[in-house]
Design a protein that fits this description.
about 0% helix, 8-stranded antiparallel β-sheet, globular, 7-stranded mixed β-sheet, mainly beta
Length: about 250
Amino acid sequence: MKTAQINMLKSIGYLMLAVFMLSVVTYAWFTMTYENKAYLTSKVSGVEAEYTFYVYQNKYHTGSSDLNLYENTCSILNQDDLCYEEITNPIIPELIKGSVAPGERFSFAIAINSIGTNQGFVDLTLGRVQSTGYDIEANKIQKAFGYEVKKISHYQNDIETEDHKELYTYQSFRHFDITDGLNYNLVTDVPMIYDINYPSRVIIYFDVYYDPSIFGQDLDGTPHTNSHAFINQSITITDVYMNVTATKGSS
């Protein structure tokens, strides 16, 4: 497995890696342009770890319902749809192909592997969410998109645990705000090692969802009853911040 390794004992700082982007669509409810790059930004301190990022390939954009990563990678299944595709070269943006409409869902997973027995704690955050092509601020497409953590598990002894996100601080479904410049926490202080007696990695599954129940409004504030205000808009989710520290609450 090709991963981007971070030596947390020797290097403290930020690593900017483009990990995914959404393809151009001109006939959908809105346009996701070729400029929608996302970066995995890592701040590391005191431990050693490596990470691997995955995009769930689903041509119908219904997201992933089988949250067991290593049994459902594209390489294991030898297929290119309904599977998790490892982003082997994060410098080159990956595409999620096809048109996008209300009700569609995009799924992602990140596996963070502790090297050795030193415990580390992970924060994962989305940042720099922006809309373009809107007429008024109240009609920004980003307000119709939401995000949520679907599962937190650990992988040790070649077995992935059941979902135990309830043990940690995680984000249930939440819409993005129309205010630019905000950060959106996915998880906080999740341990990389579940059982300190065994090497392990933590796997965080999260989705981005276009909520079909969110509509725009007229200039005078009259609410719409459809999603037409979002036609030909673009949403950009630029950053995925990963912060790993040796102690809780150190971010």
